[in-house]
Amino acid sequence: NAGVMQNPRHLVRRRGQEARLRCSPMKGHSHVYWYRQLPEEGLKFMVYLQKENIIDESGMPKERFSAEFPKEGPSILRIQQVVRGDSAAYFCASSGQAFYEQYFGPGTRLTVT
Amino acid sequence: DQQVKQNSPSLSVQEGRISILNCDYTNSMFDYFLWYKKYPAEGPTFLISISSIKDKNEDGRFTVFLNKSAKHLSLHIVPSQPGDSAVYFCAAMMGGSQGNLIFGKGTKLSVKP
User: One digit per residue, pLDDT tens: chain B, 113 residues?
Assistant: First the structure.
C-alpha cells in the first residue's frame, strides 16, 4: 500500500489522558500536513512539517497540542490532557514538492469520553 | 470568518444528468483551487484543481470553472453516476503558502439511479 497510512483509525481516550496519532506519508513524500475535522465542518489546517522541522504551525492550538516528524519513523500528532472538544477526525496528508497536490490518509477518529 | 464557502449543504441529482457544485471565496490572494471528494470514514480524495491563471480545467467527467472577478468556482460532473455520491470539498491555497489548504464545509451530493 503506497498511500498515506494513519493509525490508529479509532482512538478512545478519557478526559485528561494523552492521545498519540501517527502518520506515515506516501513513499517519496517529504512534506506532511495535519488537518482536523469537527462534526459538520470542513477540514481545518493544523500544522505542516518536513523531516525534523515544523514549517507552519499557525493552525495548532497553543496549548496541549504538538507535532513532530522525526528523521526516522512516522509523523506524530500528540494531544496532552485531552478534553471533550478534542473529539474529531484528524487527517494527515503528504505531498512531494508540489504543495497543492496533497494526498490524504483515512484519518483517525478521536473520541474523548 | 469563512474564506471558502460552500453554501449548499446538499444536492440531489438524477443519474446521467449534470451535477454542479458551487464554491465562493473571499480572499483575492488565493491562487490555487482544488476539489476533493470524501466518502464516509475515509480521507478526502483529490479530484481536480485549477490555477488562478486559468478559467477552466477538464479531466474526464469533471470540469472546474473559475470566475476570478466573481470569486466563484464550480465543479461540473457530467454525466453523474451513483458512485459519485459523496461529500465534495472545495479548497484554496494562497500564493506563497507552503501547503495550508483552506477548506469549505462541503456539499453532500446524492446521485439517484
Answer: 789 999 999 999 999 999 999 999 999 999 999 999 999 989 999 999 999 999 999 999 999 999 999 999 999 999 999 999 999 999 999 877 777 899 999 999 999 99
The phi and psi torsions of B82 (rounded to 5 degrees) equal -55, -35
* Distance to chain A for B17, nearest Cα, Å: 27
Asked whether the beta carbons of A48 and A30 are under 8 A apart, the reply is no
Considering only CB atoms, B89 lies closest to which of A6, A42, A101, namely A42
Residue A99 DSSP symbol: T
Cross-chain Cβ contact A99/B104 below 8 Å = no
Rounded to 5 degrees, what are φ and ψ at B104? -80, 180
Residue B40's CB is within 10 A of a number of other CB atoms, namely 6
Task: Fill in the amino acid letter for A30.
Answer: S
Q: Which residues of chain A make contact with B42, given a CB cutoff of 8 A?
A: 106-107
For residue A75, count CB atoms less than 10 angstroms from its CB and return exposed for 0-12, middle for 13-18, buried for 19 or more: buried
Residues B50-89, buried b or exposed e (16+ Cβ, 10 A)?
A: bebeeeeeeeeebbbbbeeeeeebbbbbeebeeebbbbbb
C-alpha cell at A64: 496541549
State the Cα–Cα distance between residues A26 and A3, nearest whole angstrom: 5
